[in-house]
Structures are given as structure tokens and as C-alpha cells.
Write a structure and sequence with these properties.
The complex is a heterodimer of chains A (263) and B (278).
Chain A (H helix, E strand, L loop, with lengths): L4 H25 L16 H8 L1 H33 L3 H16 L2 H14 L6 H24 L4 H9 L4 H30 L2 H6 L7 H8 L6 H26 L9
Helix pairs in contact in A: 2-11, 3-6, 3-8, 4-6, 6-8, 7-8
Chain B lengths: L16 H22 L10 H4 L4 H35 L6 H4 L9 H12 L4 H8 L11 H26 L2 H9 L4 H30 L2 H6 L7 H10 L4 H32 L1
Helix pairs in contact in B: 1-12, 3-7, 3-9, 5-7, 7-9, 8-9, 9-12, 11-12
The chains are: A mainly alpha (263), B mainly alpha (278).
């Protein structure tokens, strides 16, 4: 199918343009000295400077990061432990737990958010950062479980038993034989959980209560009156950081290995 | 088959206990509470009126519009994503997934902001219209119409369709297609008889991953519909945050869950049917 190469390239570029054009406009707007969204008033760094002086936005930013890190960490620990525990369970019990795990994945975010809100209200908990954290852990654990579980299928149990025959304690054998094998799943589960938490709006919207904001809820509250260009500036910084990180990680992968294995 | 973990003590099961307790407390019980509110009136007596309120004029209209828009956006996503995933899989056979990653990367920009970006672009005096009028072309007025909402849905959820299709296509054995060609099938026959059926699991998980969030969103319709077009998500959100009518909101949430379950059953059935046909 080589003859269609031109069409394929054109199509790919067209979709890339569709995906990136809105992001690029946001980035351009972050340098626009006019507050208008369609009129170019000249190049400026002002929004980047005032961003760091804007307490509300910075607070929302740190809330977002802290919630994402902590919820992804706790979800990774709970999720990984659950996967290990499920290996020795009877099949029925295991499928019950996996069934429950699928509920937040398949259900609508709005229903998950509302159900958690009703739970917190029923328990008379004041909603704020803590309830958002609980909610994020809840919807993050399934992502960890679904990325760790498949790794167990590839494990060579004979090695694990051999290690014990040679005198290793079960814990030692586990951390040295099994854990390295599931580690890639654990890491990708963590990253997935972190991403989902970072980007969540709907569930946070229902569980945050008054006075607590993440970036998403902050942006939503500004939609009606117009989003401040400082938020464009912040997102530009965040997006560029992720992009740079990715390029660095991948560049390392492609570079021919140097002596000494400085991985 | 070898029984895994035979050598491991049964006590290991306890490791799953924290998550089990967590999932009962934060997944099962909250759902029970929704059902409790959904089937109760303000005084706590059993009633079906909350669930039945879906048949009121406003709610039914919102549900129908939501269904139409989410069907349309899922279809458009599939139409755009399948050829792209195919090209990417062909291109990336044996190579790194970096190229495919470029198509997932936009998800790292806050999803609300990406929707707002479209608001900027589509506005009456927005960028697209500014460019159009600069060239003396007719301007377009799709902001605050259902078309803008479909555009927003397609844009927001397209990566959810690309990723699973790309994953199944890139794992396909190229030998199958080659064998079909060797046996005399032409390009289209090879695609329809071999590649498409084998990629169906990815297509189906893509469809559910786009359909459910499209059906239930209230954000996209809020930002790109200008608050004029109410989807079922908007109605539920307003019942909770503005009207404080939790019973009606919970009732409509139950209806929403019923629709999600139905769509799961239908897609699951197609999945199985195709598996048995082969």
C-alpha cells in the first residue's frame, strides 16, 4: 500500500493540525498584551509575571499537583497490594473485586461525582481538599489495578519457588523476583492515575465544596466572565514541561548506549 | 496448567483487604445512596416519580439531544480515528510508540482549556471568523449550536478512540493480511474480511470510551452551547448545584446508568457475535 503514501501523510498532518491548533492558539494568547481573545495587541511576558503574583491561581495549581501526587501514590499502593492479594483468591472472589473495580471506569463521571458527594454529605463531612483527595484515590485505583493485573500473567513462578528453595524468605523472594517483573505495570499505573487526577474536572466539581479549587474548577468558574490570560500562561508552562520531559526521556532511549551504562 | 502462587501463603489475600474495604465504602455504598435518593420523595417515602421525571418534556428532549449528539460524535470519532490508527500502526510496526504518543499528548493540556480554546476559535469575532472575513469569505456561526458541541466532543475524546484501535491494530500479525493477499484477496477484501474483524475489540472499547463521556457531559455543552442547549448532564448538574433537588437528580442519574448498561450490553453482544462468526 505504498502508493497512497502522499494521502496518508496529508491525512496525518491534517489530524495533527486539528489536535494542536487550539492548543497553539492558547499558547499564543498567553503572550498577547491585549486581554481580548481575538485581537493581537503585541507581544508581552506580563501574564507570566503576574501569574506568579496571582495567589488564587498559584494556590489552585499547588492544590492540583498535591492532590495528583498523593492520590496517585496512595492509589498505586492500594491497587498493587490488591493485585498481589487477588492472585491467591478463589476465582469467584477475584471476579467480584474486578467487577467492582470496573464500575468507576465504565460509569459516567457525573454519576461517580454525585454519588461521592451524597456519601460525604450523608457522613456529615465538610467538603474540601480532603474529600477531593478521597474521591481522586477512588477513581485512580482502577487505573492502577488494570495496568498491574496483566503483568502477573507473565510472571515465571518457578524462579520464585527456586529462590525460596535456595533459602530466600518469601518476602525476600517476592521483592527480588516478582516485584521487578510487575514494576513496569506499577509505574504506568501511577502515571495514568497522576494524569487522570490532574485533568479531572467533573468529580472534583461535585466533591470540592466551597473555598477549595483545583485548576480545572478555577478555570470553570472563570468561563462565564472570561478566562484570565495568566491561566493560559500557566498551561503553556505545564504543557511545555511535559513535552520537554517526553523528549528527554525518548532521546535517552534512542541514543546509542554509552559506556558505563549511565541509564 | 500450573497453579500460580501455590507456594505463597493464603494469608497474602489480606493484602487485597484495604482496597476491598475502600471499594465497598467509596464505590458500592455511594451507589446505594444514589438509588436510595432516586427512589424516595422529599419525605423519604418510596416513589417512582424521580425516575419517571425523565418523561417530562424538558428532560426527554435533553436525553434525546444527548443521545443524538453522542451517537454523532462517536461516529465521527470512529471515522477519523480508524484510518489514522491504521496509518500509525503501519508506520510504527516494530518501531517505538513515540509517533503514536504525539496524538495522545494533547490530553496533557487541561481538557476545560482545550474546550475553551474552541470557544475562542469559533466565536462571532473569533480567530476563524477573523481569518475568513479577512479573505472576504462568509463567516460561520456554529458557536452555541449543536454542531459546536459535536465538534467539542470529537476534539476532546478523539484520543480515547485512537488509542485502543491503534493498540489492537499494532498487535495484529501482518502475516494474516499477507496470507489473504497471497490467496488472491484484493485490498478491500483483505481489509473487510481480515483486518476489520480482528480490530473490532479495539473499535468497541473506543466506542464505549467516547460514547459514555459524550452522553453524560455537561461541560462541553456549557462552554460551546452557550447554555442554550441542555444535555441530560446539564439537567442533572443543575438539579444538584442550583435547584437542590437531590431526589430528582438521583432519579435521572439512575436513568443515565440504565442507558450506560444498555450500551455496554449492546457493544458486548456485537463483540461476541463477531467472535463466533470467525
Amino acid at each position: 500500500m505504498i502508493r497512497h503514501n502522499g494521502i496518508k501523510r496529508f491525512y496525518t498532518i491534517l489530524i495533527l493540525f486539528f489536535l494542536y491548533a487550539p492548543i497553539l492558539t492558547l499558547m499564543v494568547l498567553s503572550f498577547n498584551s491585549s486581554k481580548s481573545r481575538s485581537h493581537w495587541g503585541g507581544f508581552t511576558f506580563d501574564w507570566y509575571i503576574s501569574l506568579f503574583e496571582n495567589e488564587h491561581i498559584m494556590q489552585a495549581f499547588w492544590n492540583t499537583i498535591i492532590i495528583a501526587v498523593i492520590s496517585a501514590l496512595i492509589a498505586t499502593i492500594f491497587g498493587t497490594l490488591a493485585c498481589i492479594g487477588m492472585q491467591v483468591m478463589k476465582k469467584r472472589m477475584r471476579s467480584v473485586i474486578m467487577g467492582i473495580t470496573n464500575i468507576p471506569m465504565l460509569n459516567a463521571d457525573i454519576v461517580t461525582g454525585i454519588s461521592l458527594m451524597l456519601l460525604f454529605i450523608a457522613c456529615r463531612v465538610n467538603m474540601g481538599g480532603a474529600t477531593v483527595l478521597l474521591a481522586h484515590i477512588t477513581f485512580n485505583i482502577p487505573y492502577v489495578i488494570l495496568s498491574v493485573m496483566p503483568k502477573f500473567r507473565q510472571i515465571n513462578y518457578a524462579t520464585y519457588e527456586a529462590a525460596q528453595d535456595l533459602g530466600a524468605t518469601p518476602t525476600y523472594a517476592f521483592t527480588h523476583i516478582i516485584f521487578p517483573d510487575i514494576l513496569p505495570g506499577v509505574i504506568s499505573g501511577f502515571l495514568m492515575a497522576f494524569t487522570m487526577s490532574l485533568d479531572d474536572f467533573i468529580i472534583t466539581h461535585f466533591t470540592k465544596g466551597a473555598g477549595f479549587d483545583t485548576l480545572s474548577t478555577k478555570i470553570y468558574s472563570e468561563v462565564k466572565k472570561g478566562v484570565s490570560p495568566e491561566i493560559y500562561a500557566l498551561s503553556t508552562i505545564m504543557f511545555t514541561l511535559v513535552l520537554a520531559l517526553l523528549v528527554i526521556v525518548n532521546a535517552r532511549k534512542f541514543r546509542p548506549k554509552k559506556k558505563g551504562g549511565a541509564a | 496448567m500450573r497453579k500460580p502462587w501455590k507456594s505463597l501463603s493464603k494469608k497474602t489475600r489480606a493484602l487485597a483487604a484495604p482496597y476491598f474495604v475502600w471499594s465497598v465504602g467509596f464505590i458500592i455504598i455511594p451507589l446505594i445512596i444514589i438509588f436510595f435518593y432516586g427512589f424516595a420523595d422529599a419525605n423519604g417515602h418510596f416513589t417512582l416519580s424521580n425516575v419517571a421525571s425523565i418523561f417530562s418534556h424538558v428532560n426527554l428532549k435533553a436525553l434525546i439531544i444527548s443521545m443524538l449528539l453522542s451517537f454523532l460524535s462517536t461516529f465521527v470519532c470512529l471515522l477519523i480515528a480508524y484510518p489514522l490508527a491504521y496509518i500509525l500502526a503501519e508506520f510504527g510496526h516494530g518501531k517505538s510508540s513515540l509517533f503514536a504518543f504525539i496524538f495522545i499528548l494533547p490530553m496533557w493540556m487541561n481538557s476545560l482549556l482545550r474546550t475553551i480554546a474552541w470557544q475562542n476559535l469559533l466565536e462571532k469575532t473569533g480567530l476563524i471568523n477573523t481569518i475568513l472575513s479577512f479573505f472576504h469569505l462568509p463567516t460561520m456561526m456554529i458557536i452555541n449550536t449543536p454542531w459546536a458541541i459535536v465538534l467539542g466532543m470529537v476534539y476532546d475524546f478523539l484520543p480515547f478512540m485512537i488509542l485502543p484501535i491503534y493498540n489492537t491494530l499494532s498487535r495484529l500479525e501482518i502475516d494474516y493480511a499477507n496470507a489473504a493477499r497471497d490467496l488472491g484477496a484484493n485490498g478491500w477484501q483483505t481489509f473487510w474480511k481480515i483486518t476489520w474483524p480482528l480490530s473490532l475489540p479495539g473499535v468497541i472499547s473506543g466506542i464505549t470510551m467516547v460514547f459514555v463521556p459524550s452522553l453524560t457531559t455537561f461541560v462541553i455543552s456549557d462552554i460551546l452551547g452557550g447554555g442554550k442547549i441542555l444535555l441530560i448532564g446539564n439537567i442533572i448538574e443543575q438539579l444538584f448545584t442550583q435547584d437542590n433537588d437531590w431526589n430528582a437528580g438521583a432519579g435521572l442519574s439512575i436513568v443515565l446508568m440504565i442507558f450506560i448498561v444498555i450500551s455496554m450490553i449492546i457493544t458486548d453482544k456485537y463483540d461476541k457475535e463477531d467472535a463466533t462468526k470467525k
